[in-house]
Specification:
251 residues, six-stranded mixed β-sheet
Length: 251
């Protein structure tokens, strides 16, 4: 069964449609990169698919069920999302923020079980920040904060993970490490991962499928190699021929 599917989806805000006719279908273990220039609507698409915004038109299905019929708590067990915004309460430790990813499972009083503790520990280890557990979030560098928010989404243990610009603020080795982790999660744990990025060269090496958004251009999807060869990435990013040729040779 397809884990996430849309039909003629239009996204945007009350008085403005940003993108329309979005038809996607994802299965367990799929990993997809969403690319496009700033202002194309990438974050808006993530917020709509994850339930933070209502669609302008069309439908979203989660495990074959209309998303409108899925409660907020059920959705929180199906989808986790890392946006570019940061938590308002900065006076929390790294472990406390990662632990908040277990909220959908912790019951009325928020008491963490032994299984919750294990998930938190595992997430910190996967992202490589166990040594930061007792540090206050507001004392971390931007790159460390980014890793904490990704660890929180992993602790939430959802089949679907949305990551909006997860490589922002990370140095080059950390970017490669993160892409490797995402591929491992998709292959070994069958996580369905959708992430946006401006790191074209890296994502073309680590991702097979692309969703592409452009300002006043239709939403398109396909394999990286196909979209490069037919000139679509060049068109959407206004690349020079030499840039397009360089990227083609990197995959």
């Amino acid at each position: 069964m397809q884990i996430l599917k849309t039909h003629s989806l239009s996204i945007g805000y009350t008085n403005k449609t940003i993108a329309s006719d979005i038809d996607i279908a994802l299965e367990a273990g799929d990993i997809v990169a969403l690319i496009g220039p700033n202002g194309a609507g990438k974050s808006t698409l993530f917020k709509t698919l994850s339930g933070h915004l209502k669609p302008i038109a069309g439908t979203i299905e989660i495990n074959g069920e209309n998303a409108e019929n899925v409660t907020a708590k059920e959705r929180a067990k199906m989808m986790s999302i890392v946006l570019t915004e940061r938590p308002d309460d900065m006076f929390l430790t790294v472990r406390e923020i990662v632990a908040s990813g277990r909220f959908p499972y912790s019951g009325m009083f928020g008491k963490l079980s032994e299984n919750d503790d294990e998930k938190i520990k595992e997430s910190l280890e996967i992202i490589g920040i166990k040594h930061l557990s007792n540090r206050l979030f507001n004392t971390l560098s931007d790159g460390e904060r980014q890793k904490v928010m990704i660890a929180k989404s992993i602790a939430q243990d959802t089949p679907i993970i949305f990551l909006d610009e997860p490589t922002a603020f990370l140095d080059y080795p950390s970017k490669i490490e993160l892409f490797s982790i995402l591929r491992r999660l998709s292959k070994e744990q069958k996580k369905t991962i959708i992430f946006s990025s401006h790191d074209l060269e890296l994502l073309l090496r680590y991702t097979d499928s692309l969703w592409v958004m452009g300002k006043q251009l239709p939403f398109i999807k396909g394999r990286c190699s196909e979209l490069l060869k037919n000139g679509k990435i060049q068109e959407y990013f206004n690349l020079q021929d030499t840039d397009n040729e360089y990227l083609t040779n990197r995959i």
